């Protein structure tokens, strides 16, 4: 009887330890998954409709830049990315991206990245204009963020305005939101810029041409006039000398 009791106790104890060790083994598992910095490329790839934006980020090296900033906790405030869909890029006028220099493409991509993490709710606390990663380089490249009716949020570059769609990532330090339009910077695509750009370059050319002929012309004019004046003087002297000779002869 006693032996049987110890036997049952041993089995119970073994079962208890087995259960404890199973629960101990399971416990750390959920904590192990969210380690390491977020990877913006992986998040966009998973989204499935951001191939153009992924390519642009890669070509402008903004993917590795943002990933290393996320890893170095370069900025304790985190980051927010507005990721235009492939449709958004397809809806641009043909040649829009190719009209930009490499430097401008960098600014275009950086203009979609905010050096601050915003949850959908915290967009309401954003104070406009909001600085982007492109701000303070070639220009302001700011965005205006406004909460609209029915808890929607709009973001505007001054050229394009779009409603912020679903979050591909909403965990600090990285928020990534899908947008249906490319946020074209006011600095490159402002109402004045496209109209003014050809006129400006024409003006620039004519001005350059004028400027080129201007100073050169005035320099050339200055020397011919002085040469002419010198010539006239020489002629005058010549005439006077001739007159003198003639006078002497007569
Ligand atoms: C981020 O994810 C992309 C796509 O999955 C991968 O190619 C790249 O190596 C990752 N980068 C880092 C720093 O893990
Ligand atoms: C993050 O930075 C650490 C230290 O510099 C480095 O060892 C690690 O590989 C980096 N991780 C990623 C995913 O880039
Ligand atoms: C943001 O809003 C201000 C005030 O309405 C306006 O002056 C500015 O041009 C806007 N900027 C952008 C980038 O939309
Ligand atoms: C928000 O943006 C959308 C898309 O451009 C536009 O149709 C809508 O009028 C905007 N809403 C407000 C309140 O500005």
From TrEMBL:
InterPro entries given for it?
A: FAS1_dom_sf (IPR036378), FAS1_domain (IPR000782), FLA_A (IPR045003)
Which keywords does UniProt give here? Cell membrane, Glycoprotein, GPI-anchor, Lipoprotein, Membrane, Proteoglycan, Signal
Q: Where in the cell is it found?
A: Cell membrane
Stretches for region Disordered: 199-226
- Topology in membrane: Lipid-anchor; GPI-anchor
Signal peptide stretch? 1-25
Tell me the GO BP annotations in alphabetical order: plant-type secondary cell wall biogenesis
Domain FAS1 positions: 37-183
- Pfam families given in the database record: Fasciclin
**GO CC: one term?**
side of membrane
Query: Its family?
Result: Belongs to the fasciclin-like AGP family.
Q: What does this protein do?
A: May be a cell surface adhesion protein.
UniProt-recorded name of the protein? FAS1 domain-containing protein
């Amino acid at each position: 009887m006693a032996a049987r009791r110890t036997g049952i106790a041993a089995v119970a104890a073994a079962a208890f330890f087995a259960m404890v060790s199973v629960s101990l083994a399971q416990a750390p598992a959920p904590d192990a998954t969210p380690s390491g910095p977020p990877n913006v490329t992986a998040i966009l790839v998973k989204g499935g409709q951001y191939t153009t934006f992924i390519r642009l980020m890669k070509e402008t090296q903004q993917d590795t830049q943002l990933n290393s900033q996320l890893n170095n906790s370069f900025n304790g405030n985190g980051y927010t990315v507005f990721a235009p869909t492939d449709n958004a890029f397809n809806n641009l006028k043909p040649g829009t991206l190719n009209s930009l220099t490499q430097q401008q493409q960098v600014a275009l991509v950086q203009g979609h990245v905010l050096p601050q993490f915003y949850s959908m709710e915290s967009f309401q606390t954003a104070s406009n204009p909001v600085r982007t990663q492109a701000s303070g380089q070639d220009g302001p490249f700011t965005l205006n963020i406004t909460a609209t009716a029915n808890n929607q949020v709009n973001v505007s570059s001054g050229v394009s305005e779009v409603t912020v769609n679903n979050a591909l990532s909403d965990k600090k330090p990285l928020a990534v939101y899908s947008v249906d339009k490319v946020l074209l910077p006011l600095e490159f695509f402002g109402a004045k810029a496209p109209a003014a750009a050809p006129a400006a370059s024409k003006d620039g050319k004519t001005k350059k041409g004028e400027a080129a002929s201007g100073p050169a012309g005035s320099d050339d004019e200055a020397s011919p006039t002085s040469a002419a004046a010198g010539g006239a003087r020489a002629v005058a002297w010549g005439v006077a000398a001739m007159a003198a000779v003639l006078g002497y002869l007569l």
